[in-house]
Amino acid sequence: MKAIIFDMDGVLVDTMPFHYKATRTAVKEFTNISLDKRTFYLLEGMPITEIALKILDLKWYGGPTKKERLCEIAEEISNKKKEIFARMNLTPQSFNGVRELILDNLRDCSKAVVTGSSKQEAQAVIENNFGKDKFKVIINGDDFEGKGKSDPSPYLAAIRKLNVVTSDALIIENAPLGGFKQLIMLE
Asked: Which of 75, 101, 136, 155 is the most buried (most CB within 10 A)?
C-alpha cells in the first residue's frame, strides 16, 4: 500500500452529529418531516441538495408536489442547512487516536483527504487538527460540486494526484454510499 485516502467528516473528525442537527433543523423548517438519524446517516456522503431531495422523496407528506417545486425546496433546505452549520461556529476535533495515526504512524505513506465539505471548512479542520502539510492531496466539495458519494470521481481524482494505482490505495470511509468495496468498522 502506497497511499491512504481519508474521508473527513465522521472519519478524521467528529462532525456528523452537527451535520445531522443542522440538516434536521433545516428540513423541519421547510416541511412537516421529522428527520431521523438512521435515514440521515444512510444518506451520508451525498451533497446536501441530493440528501434533501431523497428525504422529500422518501418522507414527503405534503401531498402531490411537482418535481420542480421539490427541487426548489431541496435547494432551500440545502442553503438553510449550510447557514445553520456555519452559525454553529465549530472547531471540530479529531477522533481519539486519529491525530497520532496521521502524524506518527503513517509518516511514510502518501495521504489524501476527500470530503464533501467546502474548501474553507476542509482547510480549517485539517490545519487545526493535523497541520498544513500532512496530506499531499485534499479534494473538497467545491472541486466536484454536485458529485458526492457514491460517485467515485473525487476518490479517483485523489488517486491520480497521488500518482498511484487504485490497487495501491486504501480508502477509509464511513458513509455507506462510499462507492468502493468497504471494510466496515463498528464502534
From this structure: 155
SS3 label, residue 27: helix
DSSP assigned state of 95: P
Is residue 39 within 8 Å of 55, Cβ to Cβ? Answer: yes
Nearest to 178 by CA among 18, 9, 22: 9
**Residue 172 to residue 12: CA distance in whole angstroms:** 9
Report the SS3 class of residue 16. helix
Residue whose C-alpha cell reads 417545486 in the numeric block: 69
What DSSP assignment string belongs to 32-90? S----HHHHHHHTTS-HHHHHHHHHHHH--S----HHHHHHHHHHHHHHHHHHHHHT--
pLDDT tens-digit readout, 5-33: 999 999 999 999 999 999 999 999 998 88
pTM value? 0.82
Whether 160 contacts 144, CB under 8 Å: no
Alpha carbons 28 and 51: distance in angstroms, whole number: 14
